[in-house]
């Protein structure tokens, strides 16, 4: 086949060697897209998840009672009263859900649509072009592969990605894939501006000076992950993305109309409905840590489907530079008291990232490792 895929014995029971199967899959450099293009009818065994991962399915009637939070950011521009209402809604959503939609966020819908289209263009390229970007070298500023934790996670996810570090030191334009170069740069600039605004709102929601979170560097780093989920022949056996929390301060997500993103709310998986023109915002582990559990970083996952390709673009606010930083983050002193002592030890972002990456998406929270006894 043009993508270099052969049977490789994927999924066969006899003489099963998981490590060899993982390596054989990675060596194709074709990713999940290559498997889907090859016309397989059964997924490789490395993608099969334990049945327990599918408990608390969102299709139950109980999930219909939840209304996913939507915050209209137009209110922050209309005056102090409406701004206060926006801040209060953000506080409530960050405390109870860890997730919310934002509308009237200032990023043109055309930019969001072109970003989704750019991801499709990348993965629609010939295999020979895509494989030139495929790498496991985490020091590169642009990384295309399938499953960053392929060799450490309990089961692989039905997803390919393109990862780009965009701030504080953006790559040279020629380092980015030509088919989505311009829109990556444009969208990242727009998201960076929105991020600073969101951190102002969240600072106020914590009872702090509006500039607090920006001043301590929550907005200084930005990475973009373009997610590509092709149709899966056996979606009930795998996941697009395993349940996990995000290893950052804040995530801004552009998702297409397909759906599949779910949030664990009150021990129930709740679908995050695609909302045209809206962005999905969620609190990351590092913001939960410095807010001393005031805001929550919540588990979420993406279901696989056998109908259509799903695309999303997640922008992560965190310094992704590989060099160790001396900057230490711990629970914000102004939020602590005798009744509310620090629940986490102070850490560097480097320390957190090393633990998060080594752990992989195994369904557990990295925050537990840093919690004080």
Considering the chains and any ligands shown, give keywords for the structure:
single chain, 373 residues, alpha+beta, eight-stranded mixed beta sheet, four-stranded antiparallel beta sheet, 14 strands, disordered N terminus
What's the SSE blueprint?
Blueprint (H helix, E strand, L loop, with lengths): L17 H11 L2 H7 L32 E3 L7 H17 L2 E5 L5 H16 L2 H4 L11 E4 L14 E8 L13 H25 L6 H4 L6 E8 L9 E6 L5 E6 L5 E5 L2 E4 L7 E5 L1 H6 L9 E4 L6 E8 L10 E2 L17 E2 H11 L14
Parallel strand pairs: 1-2
Antiparallel strand pairs: 2-10, 3-4, 4-5, 5-12, 6-11, 7-10, 7-12, 8-9, 8-11, 13-14
* Total individual domains: 1
CATH superfamily: B-lactam Antibiotic, Isopenicillin N Synthase, Chain
Could you give the distance between the termini?
A: 55 Å
Strand content: 15-25%
The ordered string of helix (H) and strand (E) elements is: HHEHEHHEEHHEEEEEEHEEEEH
Count of DSSP E strands? 14
- Helical region count? 9
Coarse shape: globular
CATH topology: Jelly Rolls
Helix content: 25-40%
Short description:
The chain has 9 helices and 14 strands. It is an alpha+beta fold and 373 residues long.
Structure description:
The chain has 373 residues and is α+β, with helices and mostly antiparallel strands. The chain has a single domain, classed as Jelly Rolls. Helices cover 27% and strands 19% of the residues. It is built from 9 helices and 14 strands. The chain has an 8-stranded mixed sheet with strand order 1-2-10-7-12-5-4-3. Strand 1, helix 3 and strand 2 form a beta-alpha-beta unit. Helix 4 packs across helix 6. The chain is globular and about 60 Å long. The N terminus is likely disordered.
């Amino acid at each position: 086949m043009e993508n270099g895929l052969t049977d490789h014995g994927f999924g066969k029971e006899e003489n099963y060697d998981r490590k060899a199967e993982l390596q054989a899959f990675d060596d194709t450099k074709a990713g999940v897209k290559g498997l889907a293009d090859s016309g397989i009818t059964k997924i490789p065994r490395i993608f099969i998840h334990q049945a327990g991962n599918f408990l608390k399915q969102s299709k139950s009637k109980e999930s219909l009672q939840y209304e996913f939070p939507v915050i209209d950011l137009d209110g922050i521009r209309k005056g102090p009263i409406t701004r206060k209402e926006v801040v209060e809604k953000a506080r409530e959503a960050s405390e109870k859900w860890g997730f919310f939609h934002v509308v009237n966020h200032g990023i043109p819908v055309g930019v969001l649509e072109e970003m989704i289209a750019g991801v499709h263009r990348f993965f629609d390229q010939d295999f020979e072009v895509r494989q030139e970007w495929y790498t496991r070298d985490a020091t590169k500023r642009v990384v295309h592969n399938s499953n960053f934790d392929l060799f450490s996670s309990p089961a692989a996810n039905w997803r390919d990605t393109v990862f780009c570090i965009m701030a504080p030191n953006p790559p040279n334009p020629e380092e980015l894939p030509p088919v989505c170069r311009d829109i990556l740069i444009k969208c990242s600039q727009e998201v960076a501006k929105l991020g600073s605004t969101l951190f102002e709102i969240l600072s106020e929601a914590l009872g702090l000076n509006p500039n607090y979170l920006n001043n301590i560097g929550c907005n200084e780093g930005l990475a973009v992950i373009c997610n590509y989920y092709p149709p899966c022949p056996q979606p009930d056996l795998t996941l697009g993305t395993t349940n996990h929390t995000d290893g950052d301060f804040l995530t801004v997500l552009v998702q297409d109309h397909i759906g599949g993103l779910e949030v664990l709310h009150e021990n129930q998986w709740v679908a995050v409905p695609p909302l045209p023109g809206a962005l999905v915002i969620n609190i990351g582990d590092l913001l939960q840590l410095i807010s001393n559990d005031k805001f929550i970083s919540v588990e979420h996952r993406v279901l696989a489907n056998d109908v259509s390709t799903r695309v999303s673009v997640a922008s992560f606010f965190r310094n992704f530079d590989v060099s160790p930083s001396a900057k230490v983050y711990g629970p914000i002193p102004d939020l602590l008291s005798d009744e509310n002592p620090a629940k986490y030890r102070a850490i560097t972002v480097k320390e957190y990232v090393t633990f998060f990456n080594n752990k992989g998406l195994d369904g557990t929270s990295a925050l537990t490792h840093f919690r004080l006894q």
